[in-house]
TrEMBL record:
It comes from the Bacteria. Residues 4-206 form the Bacterial bifunctional deaminase-reductase C-terminal domain. GO terms for biological process: riboflavin biosynthetic process. The lineage of its organism: Bacteria, Bacillati, Actinomycetota, Actinomycetes, Pseudonocardiales. This is Dihydrofolate reductase. GO terms for molecular function: 5-amino-6-(5-phosphoribosylamino)uracil reductase activity.
């Protein structure tokens, strides 16, 4: 039996899942780390994701050391990872991650990158292999489903890729972690989604003293 297709992201209270875009080559470049725009981007990103850094599962997965917090945030982070049998992402997210992920990339499953670039699969230690898909989001999802088996497929991001899957009705469920930050500007999670095509039903909510986790099922109207 095929699993679900879902996404899970952190969002600011005013609806942004990332700060303003910066050139991919600048975001994690040592030569650009003192650039005011890059420093502002990194500061915003760190505040958005601050809830995750102390979690025991997050620290274990990225090999940041032993220990860490346990509780609802840690449980949700771990459950998201454990349900995922394969991931799909866009080229921009991959380009940013290629610069910043450790050698043992944090997915530990097949990842299908939607891109126009032709490239052989890129295998990393720890079970992550990136496959580059040149014929659209549906093909990427089909390949991810095959790889995931009876586990779920996660649409990892970025925003534009998530929006495409939402708008075409290919998603079953999504979770938003609301962080207590305001960006004012940035990349909106639902910016290009047609609201008249989707029906959402809230199925779960959980909160810690850091963030609130909201989960919705998705159906087409």
């Amino acid at each position: 039996m095929a699993g679900k297709v879902f996404f899970s992201v952190t969002m600011s209270l005013d609806g942004f899942m990332a700060p303003e875009a910066v050139p991919v080559e600048d975001a994690f470049s040592p030569e650009k780390r003192d650039d005011p725009g890059v420093r502002r981007w990194m500061s915003k990103w760190a505040r958005l994701q601050a809830w995750a850094f102390p979690q025991r599962w997050f620290r274990e997965n990225l090999k940041l050391g032993e220990g860490g917090e346990e509780g609802v945030d840690n449980d949700i982070a771990r459950a998201t990872y454990e349900r995922t049998g394969a991931s799909v992402m866009g080229k921009r997210m991959f380009d940013l991650g290629e610069q910043s992920w450790p050698e043992e990339a944090p997915f530990h499953t097949p990842v299908f990158v939607v891109t126009h670039q032709k490239r052989d699969p890129w295998e990393r230690p720890g079970g992550t292999t990136f496959h580059f898909v040149n014929d659209g989001i549906e093909s990427a999802l089909d390949q991810a489903r095959d790889a995931a088996g009876d586990r779920d497929v996660r649409i990892a991001g970025g925003a534009e890729t998530i929006q495409q899957y939402l708008d075409t009705g290919l998603l079953d469920e999504f979770s938003v972690t609301l962080a207590p930050v305001l960006f004012g500007t940035g990349i909106r999670l639902f910016d290009r989604v047609d609201p008249d095509r989707l029906t959402l039903n809230q199925v779960r909510t959980a909160a810690s003293n850091r963030v609130t986790h909201l989960t919705y099922t998705v159906s087409k109207r």
